[in-house]
Amino acid sequence: MGVIMLKVRNLIFIAFLLNSFIFAQENDDVEEVIITAQKKEERYVDVPVSVTTVSGEALEIARAGYVQEIVQASPSVTYNRTAGMRGDGIYIRGIGTSLFQSGVEPTISAVLDGVVLGRTYNFLTNLVDIERIEILRGPQGTLFGKNASGGVINIVTKDPSDVASTDLYVQLGSNNERNLTAAFNGPVSQNASGRLTIFNKYRDGFITNEYHKLDSSVEELMNGNDSQGFRGKLLWFLDNGTEVLLTADYENQYRTGIASTLRAVPAPGFIDGDPATTNATCGVVPSEEENFSTCMNHPAFNELEHSGVSLTVTRDLENHVFKSITSSRDSSIATEQDVDNHWDADWTVGLARNGGVSETQQFTQEFQLTNIEPLNGLNYTLGFFYFTQDLFRNFNRRVTWPAIGFDGTGYMNADVDSTNWALYADTTYELAEDLSLIAGLRYTNDELSYNFDRPTGPIIIPNIPNLSQ
Q1: pLDDT: is 65 or 14 the higher one?
Q2: Rounded (10°) CA dihedral 114, 120, 121, 122
Q3: Is the pLDDT of residue 8 over 60?
Q4: Which of 245, 249, 251 is nearest to 231 (CA)?
Q5: Taken in order 259, 263, 267, 268, is the CA torsion positive or negative?
Q6: How many Å apart are CA 139 and CA 109, to the nearest integer?
Q7: What per-residue confidence (pLDDT) applies to 281?
Q8: What's the order of all strands across the beta sheet hosting 130-137?
Q9: Paired strand residues for 236
């Protein structure tokens, strides 16, 4: 499978990549890596936690275009994919959570430009214009809170600079794949710089749904993707040593649902027709190597939408740095799944369709105070964190039972509201030149409330009343 990638910097330098990557290194100097794994700028070699840093260039080499593909750049990260992206999970060292239930929270903390994200699907974004990704392995509860017992994935996007530049990135591939990213950077006034990044990614599906011949309302090609969005940043430098960074972003992902194919002959009755040969309705032939077709009579898709705005204020004080991060974010995911991957043959019971939508609105406020030079051998970071999230979940399911003429639909609605605030302190005391004592403390107050409404009784099971609480 061929892939053509073009990258243009300042509209002068052009690189062509065809199934391999060509690199040019200007000199042999080793660049010092600065990271913010402990919520302050430190040299990578000085950070006393297990952390892996993946640069934006390394992500391009690995062709990791989505958060789900970080696994291609870091072997300690695994990703659990589900038919509806709402239940996807990210794992570090095998520890993580798949969030099917609305009241379950992640054990891997997701952070985007300093903003903690409440749900895993809030984090399933396109990786465009990335400065670096920091993967912190193991519990990080002191600095990142109760949802970091398995680790942290911290994404840092590129900030504006006062050097004018234009970066273009084009990728073409099979299945009509075409990815475009453009980043425009430069000064907008005497003391301010801006950066605007826009992107569009598209790829046709590679599984053919033969049922499209009978009903054009279902997608013909499955497992495809269509994404677009932008990120804008404005950075002001004030005379009193204060930096103000305003960030706004939007993204939409539409994915034709995950489709399974018949790789071997399934249990009798699953295929409409002769199970040893061909499906009479669609003409799907089971095969381990050659079958890239299915027959699903219900639409299947995931549509994920993110938007947010954040304001980061950094102020240099005497031997201290004070930072305030204020953010508001909205996310929604709509799903439709053909659960039985079937075409309504006259069989026993069919879980015909699952669908619904999840919506979250979150607000966060964090204050940090970090010393610059050690105070009598003591370095410290003090902070206050506030988080509130409103989650709405609608779920509906259709079940068919042709043998008794049953065709029913049930649904439920749920609201989960959470509020969290915390005080934390992380300290390092230098006992000797090569020996330090590290101590941390965090106090957390967490409140969770929910409302549940199931206007319809459980499908098929008789005499079960409705439930609201």
Answers
A1: 65
A2: -20
A3: no
A4: 249
A5: positive
A6: 10
A7: 59
A8: 51-55, 130-137, 151-157, 108-112, 115-117
A9: 192, 244
Query: Looking at this protein, which amino acid is placed at residue 245?
Result: L
Strand partners, 448: 418
The whole-number pLDDT of residue 465 equals 67
184-468 classified as CATH 2.40.50.90: no
Q: What is the DSSP string of 300-353?
A: -EEEEEEEEEEEEEEEEETTEEEEEEEEEEEEEEEEEE-TT-----S-S-EEEE
pLDDT digits (tens, 9 = 90+) for 354-378: 888 999 999 999 999 999 988 888 9
Neighbour count for residue 100 (Cβ, 10 Å): 12
Q: CA of 55: how far to CAs of 47, 78, 131, 170, 368, in Å? A: 17, 18, 6, 19, 25
Domain made up of 32-157: CATH architecture:
Beta Complex (2.170)
| Cβ atoms of residues 358 and 102 within 8 Å | yes
Instruction: For residue 156, give the 3-state DSSP assignment.
Output: strand
Rounded to whole angstroms, how far apart are CA atoms 344 and 422? 52
Q: In one letter, which amino acid is 153?
A: I
Amino acid, single-letter form, for residue 171: Q
| Contact between residue 109 and residue 90 where contact means Cβ atoms under 8 Å apart | no
In this structure, how many other beta carbons lie within 10 angstroms of the beta carbon of residue 148?
23
* Tokens linked to 87: 């239940």
The answer to whether 292 touches 284, Cβ cutoff 8 Å, is no
Q: Which tokens belong to 374?
A: 């050690």
Give the global pTM: 0.85
- Same fold for the domain at 32-157 and the one at 184-468? no
Query: Could you give the CA distance from residue 187 to residue 13 in angstroms, rounded to a whole number?
Result: 22
pLDDT band at residue 7, thresholds of 50, 70 and 90? low
For the chain, what's the residue count?
469
Residue 381: left (phi > 0), alpha (psi -120 to 50), or beta? beta
Residue identified by tokens 């750049």 is: 73
Cα distances from 336 to residues 266, 395, 460, in angstroms, run 24, 10, 21
Domain boundaries, the chain: 32-157, 184-468
- 């299947």: which residue's tokens? 300
